[in-house]
Amino acid sequence: GPLHETILVLQREVVEGELVADCVELGAADLKGLLQVAHDLILQFFSPSSARSDL
To answer: How far lies 39's CA from each of 14, 33, 42, 48, in Å?
Structure first.
C-alpha cells in the first residue's frame, strides 16, 4: 500500500544518499515544515480511527 511505497522510497533515498543531500539543501524552516508533514502522515496511518475527528 501507500505506506509500504513511502518506506521503500525513503529507504532508496537514504541508500543512494540523495535524502542527505536534499536535507543539506533545506533551510531550518523548510526542514521543520517537512518534519511536520511527516509527523502528520505518521499520525494519519497509525492513529486509531476514533482519533481522526479532524478529517
So the answer is: 18, 10, 5, 15
**Segment 1-32, tens digit of pLDDT:** 888 988 888 888 777 777 777 767 767 677 78
Measured over all CA atoms, what is the biggest interatomic distance in the chain, rounded to whole angstroms? Answer: 38
Q: Please name the residues in contact with 32: beta carbons below 8 A apart, sequence gap of 6 or more.
A: none
Handedness of CA 13, 14, 17, 19 (dihedral sign): positive
Euclidean distance between CA atoms 1 and 8, whole angstroms: 11
